[in-house]
Amino acid sequence: MSDQTQETYQNSRLYRLRHSTAHILAQAVMEMFPGESQIAIGPPIENGFYYDFDLPRALTLEDLPVLEKRMCEIIAGQHKFIRTESNIEQARKQFAHQKYKLELIETISQTHTVEGTAEKNESDVISFYTHDTFTDLCRGPHLDHTGEINPKALKLLSVAGAYWRGDSNNIMLQRIYGTIWSTPKELRQYLWTVEEAKKRDHRKLGSQLGLFHFSSDIGPGLPLFTPAGETLRHLMESYVRDVQTRYGYQHVWTGHIAKEDLYKKSGHYENYRDAMFPAMTDENMTFRLKPMNCPSHMTLFKEMGKHSYRDLPIRFAEFATLYRYEKSGELTGLTRVRSVTQDDCHIFCTPNQIQDEFALALDLIQEVLGRYRFTDYRVRLSLRDDDGKYVQDDEKWRIAQSALKTALDNSGLDYYTEAGEAAFYGPKADFMARDVLGREWQLSTIQVDFIQPSKLSLTYHGEDGQEHTPVVLHRAVTGSTERFLGVLIEQYAGAFPLWLAPVQAILIPITDRNLEYCQQLRTTLQDNGLRVNIDTGNERMNSKIRKAQVQKVPFMLIVGDKEEQSKSVSVRLRSGKNMGAQTIDEFISITNQQISSGD
RNA sequence: GCCGACGUAGCUCAAUUGGCAGAGCAAGCGCCUUGUAAGCGCUAGGUUAUGGGUUCGAGUCCCUUCGUCGGCUCCA
Question: Which residues pair with A440 in a beta bridge?
Fold first, then answer.
C-alpha cells in the first residue's frame, strides 16, 4: 500500500472495525487460556487483521470456530470501547504480567525521551482501550461499541508463525489471521476472490496445463519445463528481446559460473554469501554459480577496451539463468525458485544521462506491461533516508534522485515515494502492478548504482579528457521468466492470449476419414506460423472438444465430411462460441489480426 | 532457516475404534466411425514420501529425514 492509500485506510471505518475486531479476538484467546496467554500486537491489514500470541500450546484449525463463536458472543454484548490514558509508570503496572506489552511500553518511553524533550508532558501519556473485560495498550481509534460489528461478516482464516517484532532472532509467536467486513456480502465477495485465486493458482494450472513440473530427483525450487512450458518461455523471452533490441539494447552472454573473487570485489559476497550455492573448488580456484549478472556484465564492459563518453550509454541485456540458494521455507512454485532466469539489463552511462536512460526504461516497461494486459500499476520510488547504510555521496544521490523524479513527473505515471527503501547503492523505482483479481505484484525494477562500477574499476574517458566512473542502471522488465510466467498464468487463469498460447489451434477430425484433410490443413497453418495440433484419438468429437476446452486452447477446428467437401473448418472458440464454417484463408486472417492486436 | 499443517496409483480423492489398500479421470488394448464440454468394454497401474519404533497386526499411533502448503524472516 502507498503512503496515501495507507492514510486513507487508517482513517476509514473499515480500519476501526478491523482494529476493534482484533481486540475482541485477543479477549477470546485470553479467555481460552486463562492466565497463560501473552498477547503481542494485533493490527488491521489489507483485507482483515491479525493478532499475535504466545500461548502454552500450539493452536489448531479446530480452535478457530470456537474462538469465532466466543467473539460473536462478545460482539452481541454491545460493549463500549473506552479510551483511557495514563503515564508510563502506570502502564508498566497495568501490564506487569504481559512481557510483550512491557517491551512496547519501554520502546514508547525511549522514543519519547529521545524525541519528545520539548513536549515531555504530552509524550508521557499512554493510551488504552477497554471493552468488556479486555484492555489493550493501543493508540486507537476504535468503534464506539462492539454492537457495531456484524458477526456474519467475520471469519477467522488461519494460524501461522510470526517472529516477535518481525525479527528472526526473536521468539516465534502464533498469529491468527481473520477477516471482517461491514456486511456479509462483502465478506462473501472477499472469500470468493480468495477461492478464485486458488483456482487460478499457477502451481495447479501449471500441472493441469502441463507446463512445468518439480521433481524430487532434481531438487527443490528447480522447475522442469515441458515442451508447452518452454514454448511459453521462448515466446516471452523472444518478445522482450525484440523490444529491447528496438530500444537500443545489445544482448550478451556471460555463462553460468564465475570466480568467487569477482563477488568479493563487487561486494555481493559479503552481503549475500548465504544465498549463494556452495563453492566449487578446483585445485587453486574457487567458483560460484552466478547469483546475478551485474559483475559479469561490468567485467565484459571492462574487457571490451577503453570507452569514450561518446560510446555511452551502452546497454547490455541477457536472459541468464541464475542460481540462488533460497532457504527451503522461502520457495513457492514458480514465483520463488532456485534457478531463476532474469531479463536483466545493465545500462552504462554518464551521470547526465541518468534521466534520459531512466525515461527510456520507463517507456520500455510500459510497452511490455501493456502487451501483457497489465494496465493498473504504480511506481514505487524508493529514496534514501538518514540511515547510515547508504553510500556516502550526497552529490550523486542528489543528481540521481532528482533525475528519477523529473523523469517520472514527465512520464505522467502514477508514483509514490518511500524514504528509506532505496538499495544501499542508489535509489530505485519498482513497478507495482495489480492483476485482474486486484492483487499487487512487484514486477519491473530500475535501480541506480553508484558503487559497483567503482568497486570493479570501470571507467570511461570524459569530454574533459579525464577518466570517470560510469553510473550503472540495473533494469528488469518482467523480472524473471519463471516468476513472470507464474503471475501470467494467474492473470490469464491459464487462458493465454493467442500470441502466447503454446497450442493456438487444435484440429478435431470427426471421423478418421477426415484425418488426411486435417494433416493438409495443419501443414498450411504451420506454414503460416501457427502452432497447431491434431487430436487423432478415437474418442467422440465431444470428448475432444472437452479436452481442448480444459486445456484452454484458443481455437478448436472441427473437421467432418461437410468441411472437407466445402474446403473449410468449423471454428469453435474456447469461450464456447461457435463461429461456424470458415475457409482456411479466412481463419488465418482472423488469427493474424488477433495476434498483431495482442489479444 | 523458524512456527504449524499435510504427504495413499501419473492426476483428483476414498479406506469405521489399529483388522484383506479402493474409485473416477489419465494410460494401454479392443469395439463403435461419431457433429460443438466426457460413447462402451477389458487390462495394467502401489514397499501408502523415507528410515526406524510400538503392536499378534500400522495408510491409521510415536520418532527421524525429505518434500509440499499457510505464514514469518530473507529476496543482490
Answer: A434
* E strands present in A197-328: 212-213, 224-225, 250-251, 257-259, 280-281, 286-289, 314-323
Confidence tier at A122 by pLDDT (50, 70, 90): very low
User: Residue ranges per domain, chain A?
Assistant: 3-198, 217-492, 505-597
CA of A75 to C1' of B23 (A): 46
* CA angle at A590 for the pair A584 and A595, rounded to the nearest 5°: 125
Q: Which of A458, A444, A490 minimizes the C-alpha distance to A193?
A: A490
Name the nucleotide nearest A548; use CA and C1': B37
Q: Which of A324, A338, A468, A544 is catalytic?
A: A324
Cell representation of residue A268:
555481493
Query: What is A217-492's CATH number, 3.30.420.40, 3.30.930.10, 3.40.1550.10, 1.10.357.10?
Result: 3.30.930.10
- The residue from A138, A175, A294, A447 that is catalytic is A294
**pLDDT tens digit string along A501-544?**
999 999 999 999 999 999 999 999 999 999 999 999 999 999 99
Respond yes or no: is residue A13 known to be catalytic.
no
* ipTM surpasses cut 0.85: yes
Question: Considering the entire predicted model, what is its pTM?
Answer: 0.94
Residue A170 amino acid letter: N
Does the active-site annotation cover A393? Answer: no
Answer yes or no: A346 catalytic: yes
* Dist. CA A568–CA A395, nearest whole Å: 69
Distance CA A207, CA A489 (A): 11
* CATH number of the A3-198 domain: 3.30.980.10
Is pLDDT above 60 for A116?
no
Architecture label for domain A505-597: 3-Layer(aba) Sandwich (3.40)
pLDDT for res A424: 77
Burial class of residue A594, CB neighbours in 10 A (0-12, 13-18, 19+): middle
Active site residue A101: no
For the segment A73-98, what is each residue's pLDDT rounded down to a tens digit? 999 999 999 999 999 999 999 999 99
Contact A42, A25 (CB under 8 A): yes
Residue with cell 511490455: A368
